[in-house]
Amino acid sequence: MNQQQTRLSIFFGALFVAATALGLIIARMDSLALSGDIHTSAWFSLVNLNHNAFQSWRLEPISKICSGIWPNFNFAERPIPGILALLVGTLLFFRASDGPRFTWCLIFAVGAPIAILFLLITTGLDPVVIGAMAWLPLLTVIARKVIAASEPHWLMLTALLATSIENAISSNQAAIVSAASALWISYLLTKSRDSAAKNLGLTAIVILAPAIFITITAPMAEAPKYPPSAHVIQYDGSQGNIRPLIGPAYQFESIDRAAMRNEYGGRALTLLSISIFSWWTRRRHQTPVARYTAKVAMVMALLATLNATLPESVALISPLPSLARLIPWGTTYSITSVALGLSAWMTGVTLILNNRLISFIPLAIGPAIMLTFCSPNIIHPSLRKSGLVSEPIYRELILSPSASIFRNLIESGEDIPSWIEGVKAASKLKARDSAELGASIEVSPAPSAEVLEAAKKSETHWRWSTRTGIQRGDELLTIRFAAATVVNGVELDPGQYFTDYPRGLRITGGSCDQNTAEEIVDYPIWQGSLRVTYRGLPYYTPRNQVKVIFSSPRTVQCIFVKQTGRAPFDWSISRVRVM
Amino acid sequence: MHILASSGLLLIILGLSGGAWHLWEKSEQALIPAGRYLLILGALLIILPWAWSYLKGRKEITKESFLEPRVWGYGLLFIFISDWLTRPWGLFKGPTIRGELIVGAIACYLLVGRQLWKRFFAAWPLVVSCLLIWSFFVALDGSLIFSDDHAVFLFRLKLLRENFPSIPFWSPLWNAGIDARDFFATGALNIFLLASPLIYSFQVETIYPWLIAGVLWVITPISVYSAARLFGVAPLAAAISATLSLCTGLFWFRWGLKYGTVGFITSTALLPLASVVLIRFFEAHKPSWREIIFMALLLTLMLLWSPSGLAIVPIFLVALKHSQRLIKSKRHIIAACLILALNLPWMAMMWKVSGVGKFLNSNTTSSTHQVTTDANKASVTSASPTTYRHKSEGLNLKKALNQWHNNAAALNPLIVLLAAPALIAFSGFGKRYIVATCIWLLLLGTVGVSLKPQLELDRMIVIFSILASIPIGQYMWRIFSYARLGLSWRLAACFAGAFILIGPFAATSAVLNRSDDTYAILDREVRSMARAISNNSAGGRVFFSGCVLHELSGGHLAPLPFWTDTPMVASSYAHNIWRYEQPIPPELLARGDSGIREYLDLVNATLVVAHEPTWIERFKNHPDEYQQIWRGESFFIFKRLKYSPSYTTQGEIADLKFTSNSISFTPHTSSLTLKFKHFPFVTSSSCVVKPEPSAAGFNLISLSECAPGTQVTIKSVSPLRRMLGGA
Predict the structure, then answer these.
(1) In the A/B pair of chains, how many CB contacts fall below 8 A?
(2) CA-derived radius of gyration, chain B
(3) Crossing angle of the two packed helices B35-55 and B2-18, in degrees rounded to 10
(4) CB-CB neighbors (< 8 A) of B94 in chain A
(5) What is the separation, in whole angstroms, between the first and last Cα of chain A?
(6) Residue B249 DSSP class
(7) Whole-angstrom Cα distance, residue B353 to residue B54?
(8) Chain A closest-CA separation from residue B262 CA (Å)
(9) A217 phi and psi angles, rounded to 5 deg
(10) Which residues in chain A have their CB less than 8 angstroms from residue B135's CB?
(11) Cβ atoms within 10 Å, residue B371
(12) Residue B103 is nearest to which of A239, A313, A323, comparing CB atoms?
């Protein structure tokens, strides 16, 4: 490397650090502090808490030892040993790469920290991503040596096994992903494919065996107790249950895909652009290592982009969520975070390895784009709240699977303590059959007289149904009271026809003229009723429990319940009750 | 011509299997409104070219014309884009499964391109087997599979462990005494004999999940692989067959995991191997003694679930052409004698004690009484037998087609689509046998269901799917082999490969209880309930009020007496009733509290268990008579107050001891009436046994001429005496 290039590298490295610092200042402007002595910026909490925060990740051995030495330092939330391992691994990765133009000093000064900062800027201080990435570079370096060796030395194999074990423990539930990535990258980076074929099987066994062992024996993160069939992530209207095909899983979906798309869409696109740019600008001059790291970075960024930017129904069958469903534990953490983290690190490594002026431009600009335009300040302006520290319930909420509902409530401007009290009070409201209140029921499309007669008798086993086999979005049920009545909510129980709940609901009420009726609630996608556990954690009841509590009591003579969703099922009601 | 003929056959299969076809998912407008359009188009695609070539005097449509791999590969693409994958009860549960299939197709593309697929598919069945077993134990989470008949099989295995070979016998554990005879009809003996070393070495509860996992995911693929190899299929094709046998369809898991028909799944697992061994036996001029013994044992194990004999009828029919040779062959005659010697005794016993003839002819409906109770009154109503599931409807082709539609949606699409070309292409040994058996099984599983519903012949489709895995594996091997011919061939291989790569994951999803069909796992509440019963039964029985079928953790009550050391009474401890039934006779129930009390006294109930609101309310409304001692999510246990337990209505006994097949006690009087159900085959060690009618709806055991102070044992006569003596 000549002197001019070195100066340029240092200049752009400094520019990168400056851009990062500026972005971090912007990101920290709205610090969302957690209770007690833990203060986390909104940047990190938003990224992490939507996806991986409630996972109670075990401390890997080094962090455990450190915790013993410094008991007051929270290693679970500040994965310093993981970052240090990543730093050392990145250094060795550069050292083992083919670029003869680098000096050790320059790599140490600029390269490794930049690659790690790139990762942290992209995914935040996500314990899952740091855990999965911490030992991956070192594992790749050693695996590459083993694969390339004609006769792998036992010391080399021992080092590979030790790193592989540490990688599995650190990655925990993401062990398979981390180990498979390390194997794939080391295979790609091996120059001689003949020797690769020879030692690949042995390397695969040494890398994958601890990961498989951890996968089989990993305990479930301790989730709070929710009622059966409760859910904590809003349905987006896509059809079918998204359940993993293999391995353990929580009884509820825990990854907020909508939030993930919101947070990562811009970042994934930025990263994809940078990785393509860096590959394209140096495609003819790259070293073999840089070429493959660029390719891996591009593939990972592309997968994350597909998942985060395509329409949800298509994104769900894109490779990343599909792979997540095929990997044990794959749906219990955000695999998109891990893919994006890997891509960010690889992009950083590629840019450094390219070591050309043009490569450093995205390195300097990328973080600034991500930190400013993808900042929570812009994405979630309503979350600019301070003073949330005082309530211990917030910490529990944020670190629970209910974090997603919590965030939505804050965004909709709810005062959380009073909201919780309101929900608790509403759940105690007594529901009465509409017939008891002297109300009559009209339905459209009109059912047969026989069915209506049964409805009037208010028997428990009658059923009003559209009987068309589908929900079209224009079905209407009218509850007509004899006189103006104060109503707190309605319940439309589908009874034994549990798939026939309304997919969307719009309730209006007031006088019996539908045109002048006032809107009471509108749920374009019916989620189930919002409830709180006895510990105050919000959740949605199963969607077939159609109990709508109004935000305030309404005096109405008529209530119009319109089914606004579409589904290949009837809308059935076996009981109409009013609160 | 090949493409036209293959497309024609493909369309016929799709037309027969699908009904209306939608694009991507069910919508208001169907892409193809009815299957008949596809049928007609398919028929035209075959007939027109055939007619044309016939007129031209050429024979262009041959067997090979129907085997174009690309057509069948792209047929799977049609399945992918149609609504098939979103239909209810599908093994591949869409719409999201399409993502996994895309990943599978990409992986397959990479594999086939690198010629790695041979190594991969050779190891795949082993990996899949391990994944399925792991998934099963993840789902169980340290508990016990208890769904439906699993509970009963657990009970039967425990009984067999204690009593085999002295079966059938009288067991005092349930309903004041039962005829424990259904080991024959349910096929419990095959799993017992197969796994007896394990059953005698470990606790049945400990080993039971391993037995189920072993049958479903170890014996089945080994049986299919071995059968394929014996049919002359190449090792790699046999490995694909073995993989496919692990993910044939959702109903395999329904019968195996949800319904717990362990006898059936064991027989089905053994059937491919038993069939090929039998075929080789028929085809061989001089079979070796080792082959004969192996065949006889395997066939016996399979036949212990007796309907499996029906499944292999075509093998015997096809073998008729060798009848001259077989009759003259000494070894064949000896082998036949050996098989008869092994099977005739238990078959005769089953015929005698299980009323097989009556069961097979039970086509007529019969009226029944449905009894309902409420808190303050009891009423008896006559219910029309509309729920009688064994009502024959005669030959009903429409129903048969519907039956096939339902089954096809639950099967792996590879089975539905590729079975026909695979059977045509099958080049293994004994092709006629396997083709005839597959067609026969399909007919039984569709047309036969309405003819003999009591035999539950829909299971034959499940057997078909396992057996058809063999030719399909061979045909898939052919598809993969052709992939090198060009991109279109390679893509066809990828579409087929996607289903064999992702199929096992769809199966693990079902095993993990994440499919449409879920199975029940023993709840912790049952253990707590068992403890409560054990601590409070105090020398009496437990009475389950109302009708209990699957209310206890999704399974039957059967094993509870073993876990509580307490005999019990319930409407049914197993799945042998098909409508609501109360254990208390209607006459007593009609008398209200006094009638119920009389019945409880007659069965010596010290604890009553309730799960129906009316019964719970009834017991709660009488706190002076019933004291609640335990409650779970659905069951309540009440202790009877004001009742002194006694197992006699007349006379006195002491030191009563229960085993699973007898009771023993010391009488204090020479004449006794025991609160146990009398059967003609019950005998006493030193008293004269007679039936004594009771208000409980059954005869009690009356003993006379007993020697006071001398221990008396009541048990069943020996099985041989029972068979010969007419008891």
Answers:
(1) 69
(2) 29
(3) 150
(4) 240
(5) 78
(6) B
(7) 61
(8) 24
(9) -100, -5
(10) 246-247
(11) 22
(12) A323
Cα(A110)–Cα(A129) distance, integer angstroms: 22
- ipTM of the complex model: 0.89
The structure's pTM equals: 0.89
What is the pLDDT at residue B357? 66
Does A317 contact B99 at a Cβ distance shorter than 8 Å?
A: yes
Please state, in angstroms and rounded to a whole number, the distance separating the CA atoms of residues B160 and B168: 10
Contacts of A244 in chain B (CB under 8 A): 509, 514
| Residue reference for tokens 């045509």 | B424
Residue B86's closest CA among B508, B418, B409? B409
Residue range A499-513: mean pLDDT, rounded = 90
B93–A241 C-beta distance less than 8 A: yes
pLDDT band of A225, cuts 50, 70, 90: confident
Measure Cα distances from A467 to A471, B355, B406 in Å.
9, 45, 21
Contact B509 A318 (CB under 8 A): no
Round the CA-based radius of gyration of chain A to a whole number and report it.
Answer: 28
Substitution target from B96, B108, B138, B505 for chain A, most A beta carbons within 10 A: B96
Q: Which residues of A touch B508 (CB under 8 A)?
A: 245-246
Picking from A297, A449, A276, A483, the residue whose alpha carbon sits closest to that of residue A359 is: A276
Look at residue B295 in the predicted model and tell me its pLDDT. 96
Asked whether residue B387 carries a pLDDT value surpassing 90, the answer given is no
Distance, CA of A219 to CA of A206 (rounded, Å): 22
Determine whether the interchain pair A243/B514 forms a contact, defined as Cβ–Cβ distance below 8 Å.
Answer: yes
Length of chain A: 579
Tokens of residue B505, six digits: 């994951």
Structure tokens at B720: 């041989």
| Burial label, A383 (beta-carbon count in 10 A; 0-12, 13-18, 19+) | middle
Residues of A with CB under 8 A from a CB of B: 216, 238-249, 313, 316-319, 321-323, 325-326, 470, 568
Element (H, E) at A17: helix A3-28
pLDDT tens, B603-637? Answer: 999 999 999 999 999 999 999 999 999 999 889 99
- In chain A, which residue's Cα lies nearest the Cα of B131? A246
The Cα–Cα gap between A5 and A11 comes to 10
How far away is chain A from the Cα of B14, in angstroms, using its nearest Cα?
22
Out of A191-195, A293-297, A351-355, the most confident range is: A293-297
At B657, is the secondary structure helix, strand, or coil? Answer: strand
Phi, psi of B558 (to 5 degrees): -40, -55
Neighbours of A85 (CB within 10 A): 24
Is the pLDDT reported for residue A172 higher than 90? no
Rounded to 10 deg, the angle between the A175-189 and A335-354 helix axes is 30
Strand partners for B411: B249
Q: Is B62 exposed, middle or buried (0-12, 13-18, 19+ CB in 10 A)?
A: exposed
The pLDDT assigned to A469 comes to 73
Confidence category of residue B158, pLDDT binned at 50, 70, 90: very high
B537 pLDDT above the threshold of 80: yes
Report the residue from B25, B27, B99 with minimal CB separation from A322.
Answer: B99
> For residue B524, what are the CA distances in angstroms to B314, B528, B633?
47, 7, 11
Exposure class string for B232-241: b at 16+ Cβ within 10 A, else e: ebbebbbbbb
Pick the more confident residue, A498 or B643: B643
Distance CA A563, CA A473 (A): 5
Whether residue A538 is preceded by a cis peptide bond, meaning omega within 30 degrees of 0, is no
CB B189 within 8 A of CB B597: no
Question: Quick one: which of B573, B568, B535 has its CA closest to B658?
Answer: B568
